Structure of DUF8030 domain-containing protein:
Amino acid sequence: MSSEYEQQQSRLSSEQAEQPSEEPWTDLELTLPHNRSPTGIVSFVECALVELTHEDVGAEFVSTSVAGTKRTQFIAVDDVGEQFQKRYFDERLGWHETTVSREAVREELVNRLSRSSLNRTSETPSTDADTFRVKPIHQF
């Protein structure tokens, strides 16, 4: 015969199993400008790269200016996360795709996410903020 405590634990376990757990990559989103330190940016980018390697997700950086919207997407193309597909979209030029190394992705993301708000002062006030987010590949 089960004790009341064991029955409660069993009920809690089944309730938790029914609720979808939040994916670890859902919090990997950043809007520029931000107040993260340079070390915090590197750590953030490393977390994103780990998720890109181990989950069915990609990273997207969206930049808007008076010249239009530009999107840069990164998707791991191997299981070890050493090669990534880089997709770049410019409203005037269309899509361009290439394969880049993990180091190149890391460097590009750290540089883009480290930009200060001073780089955006020449833009019009109605321009949307630049954003970076990790999301399921099927949403690209």
